[in-house]
TrEMBL record, chain A:
Pfam families: AIM24 (PF01987). PANTHER family: ALTERED INHERITANCE OF MITOCHONDRIA PROTEIN 24, MITOCHONDRIAL (PTHR38074:SF1). The lineage of its organism: Bacteria, Bacillati, Actinomycetota, Actinomycetes, Kitasatosporales. It comes from Streptomyces canus. It comes from the Bacteria. This is AIM24 family protein.
Length: 216, 231
């Protein structure tokens, strides 16, 4: 596990020879040892095709490759940082929330429409996540940014969890999500409770929620 | 026989009734409320997640009826409140503000409507006149009151400190850092305006609120922009 939390807004990553890290460009705060930062034109892993894929999906964030040996401090914009460890499952997260992740993880993009069809696309639009989201798969850890602190809510088959789309950060595990609406006549006449749209997550896994309704 | 909540609170089941909608803090910025069929009032749109079954309904005019609605409109202490009811756990948060829990046993809490996150449905909310103090806080002339038995959650910019005021020890606070108070307190407005202030040489602490009596004052480690802070 290369990441360790210094405080709630900074993480320290250990870089060893032969092990790559990816991080958001410009997120390095300080480093020790011989570490090189190279801008990653492709915006992550995979070849040119993955890069085009990400560009098209608007899930490309400027990333850099971190290599060498030493320790690096990461932080960005004063946002809270949460470390998520993956053991073979897939993490779904917005690309701009990614602070840093291990090179052992497989990066990909997922079309929202592939989960829930048209409703999936609507959900992406409403939650401001766009039609695509980034997936990270494999063994390794990820540092994810959020406004305010992050808390985990376990999702079990008996207890589906509903999340405010603006407060949703990421989820992993075998979780299906769909947009549920509680639209009534009140919302039409402007007397809504402000909770008309919710993301319903069901299955088995964990969802990460931030203590704020602000996007990054 | 129909039981009223007031009767229950006096009786032996008081403890049970209090534990119905349990407010607890998850970290310092998230409020988790465990509900079993009952309701809480919360700031509109402050839900971040829930499990179980929940319904959200906007309460026009803060849920105080027509009279309350009109009063709130006139006093500018408008708050958009929703009633959350159901079974399960509901999490509330607002712009990563720090949250403080306040337990009320029949006493009155004075808080700015913008700092109030959630209250037990059994608590009554209203408005009261603050006079010059309110204006100095940059919050207007009126404030919100919460009274009854139950819990309320108030928000602050940064972790709030609770300061006790007793007969021997009155307390003076900066209007911009004041967020709420409870108990039997009388407040007065102090100004330290001298001729230096008019010369533009003021210390930035020209106005203060002085609390006397018995009670608690909640102060945040941050100051709102107020007229007082500029002179």
């Amino acid at each position: 596990m290369p990441f360790s939390e210094i405080n709630s807004k900074m993480v320290e990553a250990t870089v060893l020879p032969g092990q790559r890290l990816f991080s958001q460009r410009g997120a390095m705060l300080a480093y020790r040892g011989e570490v090189s930062f190279t801008p990653n034109l492709q915006g992550g892993q995979g070849g040119v095709m993955s890069m085009i894929g990400r560009r098209v999906a608007n899930e490309d964030t400027p990333l850099m490759t971190v290599e060498g040996s030493g320790t690096v401090l990461f932080g960005h914009g004063g946002h809270h940082v949460q470390i998520i460890n993956l053991t073979g499952d897939t993490l779904y997260v917005e690309a701009d929330r990614l602070l840093a992740f291990e090179g052992t993880l497989q990066q990909g993009t997922m079309f929202m429409g592939s989960q829930g069809g048209v409703m999936g696309m609507v959900r992406g639009q409403i939650s401001g996540q766009g039609l695509f989201t980034t997936t990270l798969k494999g063994h390794g850890s990820v540092a994810v940014m959020a406004h305010g602190g992050v808390f985990e809510v376990p999702v079990t088959p008996q207890r589906p969890v509903h999340v405010d789309p603006q407060a949703y950060v990421a989820h992993h595990g075998d979780v299906r999500n769909k947009l549920s609406t509680a639209l009534g006549w009140r919302d039409m006449v402007g007397r809504g409770s402000g909770e008309a749209f919710q993301l319903e997550l069901s299955g088995n896994g964990v969802v990460y929620v931030q203590a704020s309704e602000e996007k990054l | 026989m129909r039981l009223h909540p007031q009767d229950l609170l006096a009786g032996p089941c008081a403890r049970y009734l209090h534990s119905v909608a349990m407010f607890r803090l998850q970290g310092s910025k998230v409020l988790a409320v465990d509900m079993t069929g009952d309701a809480v009032k919360a700031k509109n749109g402050s839900m971040v997640a829930y499990d179980g079954q929940m319904t959200f309904k906007k309460m026009s005019g803060g849920g105080e009826g027509i009279r309350g609605m009109v009063t709130r409109r006139i006093t500018g202490e408008q708050m958009t409140v929703m009633e959350v009811s159901g079974h399960g756990t509901c999490w509330f948060a607002d712009r990563a503000s720090e949250i403080n829990l306040v337990g009320l046993q029949g006493d009155k809490l004075y808080v700015e409507s913008s700092n109030l996150l959630a209250t037990d449905a059994g608590l009554r909310t209203g408005t009261s006149f603050t006079g010059l103090r309110g204006a100095s806080q940059g919050n207007g002339l009126f404030t919100t009151t919460v009274e009854g038995h139950g819990q309320a959650a108030i928000m602050s910019d940064g972790p709030a400190v609770v300061l006790r005021v007793s007969r021997q020890y009155p307390l003076t606070v900066d209007p911009g850092a004041y967020i709420a108070h409870q108990g039997n307190l009388s407040q007065s407005f102090q100004s330290g305006v001298t001729f230096r202030t008019f010369m533009g040489e003021g210390g930035g602490e020209a106005f203060q609120i002085r609390f006397e009596g018995d009670g608690l004052v909640y102060v945040q480690p941050s100051e709102r922009n107020t007229i007082a802070g500029d002179v």
